[in-house]
Amino acid sequence: MNAVLDISGLNKSFGGIKATDDLNLSVRAGELHAVIGPNGAGKTTLISQLTGMQKPDSGRIRFKGRDITAMAPYSRAHLGIARSFQITSLILEMSVLDNIALALQAREGHSFRFIRPAHALTRLRAEALALLDRVGLADKADQPTVALSHGEHRHMEIAIALASKAELMLLDEPMAGLGIEESAQMVELLRGIKGRHTILLIEHDMDAVFALADRISVLVYGHIIATGSPDEIRGNEAVQHAYLGEE
Amino acid sequence: MSFLTRRGWISAVVMALLAVLPPVFFLTGNAFYLDLATRLSILAIAAVSLNLILGYGGLVSFGHAAFVGLGAYAVGIPAHHWLYGGLDFLATTSGFVQVPLAVAVTALFALITGAVCLRTKGVYFIMITMAFAQMIYYLIVSIEEYGGDDGLVIDTRSELPLIDLDNPLQLFGLAYVSLLVAMLLVRMITRSRFGMVLQGAKGNEERMVTLGFNIYAYRLTAYVISGAMCGYAGALLGNFTTFISPEMMDWSRSGELMFMVILGGAATTLGPVLGAIAFIVVEEILSSFTIYWHLPFGLMLMGVVLFARGGLMGLLRGRREDGE
Ligand SMILES: Nc1ncnc2c1ncn2[C@@H]1O[C@H](COP(=O)(O)OP(=O)(O)OP(=O)(O)O)[C@@H](O)[C@H]1O
Ligand SMILES: [Mg+2]
């Protein structure tokens, strides 16, 4: 089995709260692996440790066989890990296009390039426009990001993750705060991406999860209590007891 | 793009007036105004440099006067030894040595202090940049050879081919052209890919790191560029005043530079120049009435911050373009 991401014995506490508790998880190449769990289960904390914005207290994270537990956050991006944020994290004062162009720029090695105006790089602009087109925002390209709606911001998050061409995409609740129609659009968007990238999807929307996921892991109090196919998870008693049953 | 934007027009007019008016005053017997314009241009170079870090980088450096002071001492100390002996390897009045020395020393100082300061954030960054500046202030105060806090007279201005800095018109010309170059340089940098990263990091640090940018390295580079440009301004200021003292590096001087940037309009090409003009005008008018002239200046700054976001530049270019 070729695991792109392999997490073993991960622990992280905030004071008395154990946000990650002896967490083991393996994500296979090409799969869409969903992580579900109640509020405060430690899903976002898990992602933050994968991108390096938070340091685990103990445990190992391996990406494509390489130990990245202590690697600097910006270096992990270069290895091929991208993230979308649960709470939209964009550069609000820049244009929509510039947000995407920066993500493309990040992929091209260093940016210690002082002379040519970034806007004159038609290649970057064209690629950024194509990505915006894919998420249905091409006509908003030149607007300031702050002027867009919440739903549009959520789509920008995905476009940025796509721009990185990352092998592994960590998507933290892409449907957070979306209406029914917008959620449906997002599901279609993710369905289109699925298979081309390995995806770790965190999501509360159960319909979306069961529609999209190849495998599902259930996180409760920082610990993975079950991993399996959507059918296995549906039928799992421990899961029903701990989580699904409460709905 | 075929014609200048409103912003471009304002810049062109202001810079043209700044080029033409002072020499006209000088030639009609009002030498004082030329001096004022020279000082204005030099301070504006420092403000333009600070704007790279403060305006575009979002990093509130409260120690930029130290770079100006160090740049001035890089002219004063070699000139001092040239006249009084000692430290032969350093003794010179050649501008070709002094000016590169000013730039190199301030770049190095920026590299070392920036490497430490940029590990901190927010208020801590403000405090530590100020602390490093005060350190240099006290260092110079403690060196009696260079006059301690009495300061140092520069008997001979930097010697350059073709330009005679003892000639007020030529000194102004050099300061003015340097200002233009500084503005274009910062404009070029901020529009480049490097500049996009710098501004992205100001807007959203976590996003930029997650994208794969080592924002520390980018910020440090910008800090060094900004410091070195301020050092150059300092070398000019030393040549202009021909008297330098640690007071040039006092924290209140750093504060004045910050005022210029914010008052004029941070993260704009012309803003720091407008800020420097406002500063010089207010200083000239008010300091003849009261020694507490900083107070109205502070009130003016508060007014602009509260009622005219974007500074004087924001006021001039009007509301509609605000989204730009
Ligand atoms: N920086 C922090 N400092 C202190 N406690 C934190 C911090 N970040 C998270 N926590 C706590 O850790 C636990 C896990 O939080 P986390 O945000 O990872 O949950 P989550 O599963 O993403 O929840 P949600 O579904 O609401 O997004 C929570 O109890 C939270 O309060
Ligand atoms: Mg969360």
Textual characterization of the structure:
The complex is a heterodimer of chains A (247) and B (324). Chain A has helices at residues 43-51, 73-79, 96-107, 122-134, 150-163, 180-193, 206-212, 230-235, 237-242; strands at 3-14, 17-28, 32-36, 58-63, 66-67, 81-84, 168-172, 198-202, 215-220, 223-228. Chain A is of the alpha/beta class. In chain A, helix 3 packs across helix 4 (122-134), helix 3 packs parallel to helix 5 (150-163) and helix 4 (122-134) packs across helix 5. Chain B is mainly α and 324 residues long. Chain B has a two-stranded antiparallel sheet with strand order 1-2. Chain B has one domain (2-250): ABC transporter involved in vitamin B12 uptake, BtuC, CATH 1.10.3470. Chains A and B meet through helix 2 and helix 3 of A and helix 6, helix 7, helix 8 and helix 9 of B. Bound molecules: adenosine-5'-triphosphate (ATP) and magnesium ion.
